[in-house]
Every structure is written in structure tokens, then in C-alpha cells.
Amino acid sequence: MRRTESATLRHPSQRHVPSPRSAFTMIEVIISIAIIVIMILVLIPSMRRSIQMASSTVCKHNLHQIYLGLEMYRDDNDGWLPNVLPPDGAEEDAALPPWFARLYPNYIDDLTALTCPEDPFRFRMAKVEDYSDSAALAGLASYGINGFLVSAGDGSLANRRIQPTRPHDTILVADLGPDVAQGQSSEPAPATGPPRNGSLLLWDDGFDPLTFGSGVPWVTTRHGDGINMLTISGVVRDVETRNTIATPIQAYYEGCAVGGCTICNYVEIPHYSFAHKRLYWWTGPTAIVE
Q1: C-alpha distances out from residue 134 to 67, 129, 267, Å
Q2: From CA 114, how far away is CA 94, in angstroms rounded?
Q3: Could you say which of 75, 81, 90, 109 has the lowest number of CB atoms within 10 Å?
Q4: Where are the alpha helices (DSSP H) in 103-253?
Q5: Is residue 216 part of a domain?
Q6: Per-residue pLDDT tens digits for 104-156
Q7: Is residue 11 part of a domain?
Q8: Interatomic CA distance for residues 149 and 25, integer angstroms
Q9: What is the average pLDDT across 214-223?
Q10: 256 lies in a domain?
Q11: Contact, 153 vs 164, CB < 8 A?
Q12: What DSSP state is assigned to residue 163?
């Protein structure tokens, strides 16, 4: 007997229906992971730059606070910067705390203003209990003051009576390194850290033809490729320092001399040059420093 066509057809409920896929294939998982990794690699540099920019902004704010503190200090001290021995020898410089400690608490009441967020040794300041102990404080700040300014002519340049010809271009305070332990190139030792030249920016960084290069310079690249510098007029600038660190210290730089650098034009002693940012150790009267 011939089977009818309807007899050969299955009821719809009896037909095979593929089940939904419950997992990714291995290839899909690998592709997804690769995409995520690529996105992270693209974002990391941007995030790092954003963090550095934010830290640099805080550092610049600190320098503005320091400038205001220094100006108020000078108002109360006959125009002198702190930790400067006036020519009449009225004070014993060795007995004075570092310049920044003399601003606290009357002129700067927040010690975080003395620590840069990018300084790996910023925590040391918070551990100090006696801010009159000059030995304990000497290298704790993240910032240094222009050593030439406070020492040339027995410190005379550090008084308002003697002004540079270009205060907008004359260094006052800047980020102070080194940011690694002396003689090391890796992460610094967390307990003590490196010495910092008594919280001074030394124009020659202790230059010695026989030993130069054996230590770690105070000039650093704390903010990516450079540091922040405050001028006598209160302006803060970004200063690229990678090339400065890599260049041997010289007694004369043509670009520096053209810009009015007193050291290049009259003293001619080895010094760092920041002329590429129109910044100089001193621009002004020369008879005092000769």
C-alpha cells in the first residue's frame, strides 16, 4: 500500500531544533583578550601623562605658595631671604635651620607645600618632629633655593636692595633632586634617601674635574622630562632637563651669555645652563659677585 506524503512528514514538535550556543569559541576568546590588551596598552601612556600633569600642577601650586611665603618673610626681615647671612654678620648662618624651615609655620602653615607629589622622598618631611633641628631638616624639602643668589657677595644678592635686571628670568626656587639614592640607578632606599645639597640649587653641582660624574646630580626629570622652576618675579615655568643632565657642565655657554647670564659674562665658573627656557642664575649687577 502506497504511503501518503503526509505520513512521511514529522510533526513539528518532533523536528530537531539546534540549541542556543552557550560559550565562546577559543578563537573568539583569544581575539577578545587581544583587543582588551591593545586598548590597555594604548591607554596606559595617556593615563601616565595625565597623572604626571596633575602632579606637576600641584607642584606649581606649591611653588606659588613658597613664593608668597618668601615675600612675606622678606617684608618682615628687611628684605632678606631666609637662611642668608647678611654682610654685617648679625646672625650665625651655621645655627640657622634651612631656608624653608624658617618659613614654617608663620609664612607657610602647610608642610605639604614643601613636598612635590612626584618626589619619592616626600614622606620624610612628615616624620620630622623638631623643625628647629637644622641637621635633620637639611635635605628633606622637595625644593631648593638658588645657591648663587644666597651666597654670591656674602649673600648680598638675596636682599631686595639688589635686584636682577631681569627678575622674570632669574631662578629663585626649583625642584630639587636627586630622586635616587646616591650611587644608585634603581629605586631609592626608602629610609634615608640622598643628600640634597643643604636644600640649595648649586650652580655647578659640586663640580670637580677629577670626580665629576661619580655622583647623582640634583637636576632631575621629576615631571616626565624636566622640572618646575620659580623665578624671582613669581613666575613658574616647565623646564626640560634631559639634555641639561646629559651635557657636561661648562663655564661659558653662548646662548646663556646672550641672555644676560652674569656667570657666563663676568664670573665664568662651571655651571648648569637653562638658557633654552630663558632662565639664568643671576641677571644683574656684577661688581658684587666678582
Answers
A1: 21, 12, 31
A2: 22
A3: 90
A4: 123-126, 134-137, 147-151, 242-246
A5: yes
A6: 889 998 888 999 999 999 888 877 777 666 667 777 899 999 999 998 888 88
A7: no
A8: 70
A9: 83
A10: yes
A11: no
A12: -
CA distance 252 to 270: 7
Q: Which of 183, 181, 176 is nearest to 199 (CA)?
A: 176
CA 242 to chain CA centroid, Å, is 12
Domain coverage including residue 202: 30-277
Q: How far is CA 265 from CA 164, 254, 262, 268, 272, in A?
A: 14, 9, 5, 7, 14
Work out the end-to-end distance of the chain between its first and last CA atoms, rounded to an integer number of angstroms.
129
Domain annotation covers residue 81: yes
Q: Is 144 helix (H, G, I), strand (E, B) or coil?
A: strand
Q: What is the mean pLDDT of the chain?
A: 80
Supply 143's cell numbers. Answer: 625644593
Q: How confident is the model at residue 37 (pLDDT cuts 50, 70, 90)?
A: confident
Question: Does position 52 have pLDDT exceeding 80, yes or no?
Answer: no
CB 98, CB 199: distance < 8 Å: yes
pTM for the structure as a whole: 0.78
The domain total for the chain is: 1
Closest CA to 265 of 280, 248, 246: 280
Torsion over CA: 65, 66, 67, 68 (sign): positive
Whole-number Cα distances in Å, 169 to 189, 231, 259: 35, 6, 9
Question: CA–CA separation, 150 vs 162, rounded Å?
Answer: 12
In sequence order, the β-bridge partners of residue 145 are 173, 200
Half-sphere exposure of 275 (CA within 13 A, CB side): 18
pLDDT(240) > 70: yes
